[in-house]
């Protein structure tokens, strides 16, 4: 029996890592409406595991009880197979999660092989649930049983929470356009791009996505055309607007020289390729909206930052490429994005696990400014900037009320009904994450959307408390039409 308990322990430890690292961390399944079926399967499977661990801790299931335990074990296999099918249909699993699942499958197979002789022996005995004590193994299996039981309840509660769809997203863009547009979106499989494509497709626009990894396009709505290279478009291809959101994630790891080269290339090279495409098209798009981040600015203080503030020289090459596009008669808009917030991804998605489990708190001194913007307002701003043919140049896309990190942390903890007690020292962040930690977590940038508001744009949610309440409850503020005065509208060519 010891070998069975060892394999059960391996299964529990690896499974816990998969839950915490993938399901709660990198994939944020507990906040994705598309993961509802997967969450229900996880809840059922964790409930079955709780039964198995409890039996291993304190009982010998004899007679009919052995048969019931065998049914539970077989049900776990069926649930896992169903989970594989649902995962394959609804999301692209990272390689690390595929490896973990393979290890878990092999481990569970070995566990069943070793447990089967015991089940056969128990089955031939009179029906009784005999209490046994296996020393410290009983205590360990009990801990595992409680852990998976709690996770069963969590997955079930989150499956219920995300069961109701967030509602249509077409209103985010509909009011700005009087005719369907042909839109090219680079980086359309990313956090912002996916939401933008969904809104455009729902509103009836013709969307083409340029992506380095077409496998990720499975998360996009249909119909959407997919391209992997700009040179795949013929010269007579027509786009009314181009939205450039391409770029590797700046939060994807320490900013080593190699990582910096990848970050620069993913932005500068894509921007240049898009401009080269625009140059050779027989009919050029009316507008190019290109996104960068407020890291564009060099300031790191309490000073208010507007579009007129000093900028960091590292962006010079990208800006040169954008200026080249304007020489071909294309209106160029430079979006400078703050921290784009939504529960299923981005910086808020990365912070949620710690806060949900009561471990959230301030970062460093907590006095650094966080210039944020909601994902819905980001999509609305993109549509607004496309539609207004009198707008060009830089626009800060940040909510008009930035907050300090301490204010943000308190607001997030309050919305989740959790404490906000911990402090993550700045020295630890610098040691662990280096320049990336300094720039993304500790730098202070108090950015205001001066030009965007002056143009007549109105944010749906201007305060961090309103944004967090909407994001975490998966609700959307409607009607949009009453929030924004109608701008001049763009017609498809």
Structural commentary:
This protein has 493 residues and is α/β, with parallel strands linked by helices. The chain has two domains: 2-161; 174-472, Rossmann fold (3-Layer(aba) Sandwich), CATH 3.40.50. It is 49% helix and 13% strand. It has helices spanning 2-26, 36-58, 64-90, 95-123, 136-161, 191-202, 257-280, 316-326, 346-356, 375-387, 405-416, 426-433, 435-442, 450-454, 464-472; strands at 59-62, 128-131, 182-186, 206-210, 225-227, 241-244, 287-293, 304-305, 331-337, 339-341, 361-363, 369-370, 372-374, 393-397, 403-404, 422-424, 446-447. Helix 6 (191-202) links the parallel strand 3 (182-186) and strand 4.
Strand and helix layout:
Layout lengths: L1 H25 L9 H23 E4 L1 H27 L4 H29 L4 E4 L4 H26 L20 E5 L4 H12 L3 E5 L14 E3 L13 E4 L12 H24 L6 E7 L10 E2 L10 H11 L4 E7 L1 E3 L4 H11 L4 E3 L5 E2 L1 E3 H13 L5 E5 L5 E2 H12 L5 E3 L1 H8 L1 H8 L3 E2 L2 H5 L9 H9 L21
Parallel strand pairs: 3-4, 3-6, 4-5, 6-7, 7-9, 8-17, 9-14, 10-13, 11-16
Antiparallel strand pairs: 1-2, 12-15
Helix pairs in contact: 1-4, 1-5, 2-3, 2-5, 3-4, 6-10, 7-8, 11-15, 12-13
Summarize the structure.
The chain contains 15 helices and 17 strands. With 493 residues, the chain is an alpha/beta fold.
What proportion strand? 5-15%
Structural class designation: alpha/beta
**First and last CA, distance:** 74 Å
Number of domains: 2
Question: Treating each run of at least 4 consecutive H or I residues as one helix, how many helices?
Answer: 15
Helix content: 40-55%
The name of the CATH superfamily of the largest domain reads: NAD(P)-binding Rossmann-like Domain
Q: Which ranges are low-confidence, i.e. pLDDT below 50, for 5 or more consecutive residues?
A: 476-489
CATH class of the largest domain: Alpha Beta
What do the pLDDT scores average to?
84
Strand order of the largest sheet: 5-4-3-6-7-9-14
Shape: elongated
């Amino acid at each position: 029996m010891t070998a069975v308990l060892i394999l059960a322990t391996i299964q529990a430890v690896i499974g816990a890592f998969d839950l915490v690292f993938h399901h709660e961390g990198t994939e944020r399944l507990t906040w994705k409406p598309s993961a509802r079926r997967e969450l229900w399967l996880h809840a059922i499977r964790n409930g079955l595991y709780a039964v198995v661990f409890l039996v291993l801790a304190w009982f010998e299931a004899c007679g009919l009880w052995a048969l019931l335990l065998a049914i539970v074990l077989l049900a776990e296999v069926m649930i896992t197979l169903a989970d594989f099918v649902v995962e394959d249909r609804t999301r692209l699993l990272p390689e690390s999660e595929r490896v973990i699942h393979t290890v878990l499958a092999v481990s569970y197979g070995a566990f069943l092989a070793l447990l089967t002789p015991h089940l056969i022996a128990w089955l031939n005995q009179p029906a009784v649930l005999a209490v046994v004590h296996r020393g410290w193994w009983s205590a360990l299996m009990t801990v595992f049983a409680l852990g998976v039981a709690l996770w069963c309840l969590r997955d079930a509660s989150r499956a219920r929470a995300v069961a109701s769809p967030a509602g249509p997203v077409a209103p985010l863009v509909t009011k700005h356009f009087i005719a369907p547009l042909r839109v090219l979106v680079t980086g359309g499989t990313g956090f912002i791009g996916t939401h933008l494509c969904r809104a455009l497709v729902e509103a009836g626009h013709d969307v083409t996505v340029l992506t380095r990894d077409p496998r990720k396009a499975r998360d996009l709505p249909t119909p959407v055309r997919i391209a992997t290279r700009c040179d795949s478009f013929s010269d007579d291809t027509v786009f009314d607007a181009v939205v450039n959101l391409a770029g590797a994630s700046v939060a994807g790891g320490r900013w080593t020289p190699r990582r910096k080269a990848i970050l620069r290339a993913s932005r500068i090279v894509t921007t240049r390729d898009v401009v080269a495409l625009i140059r050779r098209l027989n009919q050029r798009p009316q507008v190019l909206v290109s996104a960068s981040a407020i890291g564009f600015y060099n300031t790191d203080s309490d000073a208010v930052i507007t579009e007129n503030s000093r900028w960091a020289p590292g962006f010079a090459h990208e800006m040169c490429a954008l200026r080249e596009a304007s020489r071909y008669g294309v209106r160029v808009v430079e979006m400078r994005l703050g921290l784009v917030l939504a529960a299923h991804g981005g910086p808020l998605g990365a912070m949620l696990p710690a806060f949900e489990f009561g471990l959230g708190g301030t970062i460093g001194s907590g006095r650094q400014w966080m210039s944020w913007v909601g994902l819905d307002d980001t999509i609305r701003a993109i549509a607004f900037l496309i539609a207004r043919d009198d707008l060009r140049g830089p626009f800060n896309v940040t909510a008009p009320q930035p907050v300090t990190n301490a204010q943000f942390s308190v607001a997030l903890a309050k919305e989740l009904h959790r404490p906000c007690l911990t402090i993550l020292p700045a020295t630890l962040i610098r040691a662990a994450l280096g320049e990336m930690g300094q720039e993304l977590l500790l730098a202070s940038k108090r950015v205001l959307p001066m030009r965007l508001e002056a143009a007549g744009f109105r944010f749906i949610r201007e305060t961090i408390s309103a944004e967090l309440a909407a994001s975490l409850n998966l609700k959307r503020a409607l009607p949009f039409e009453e929030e924004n005065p109608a701008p001049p509208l763009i017609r498809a060519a």
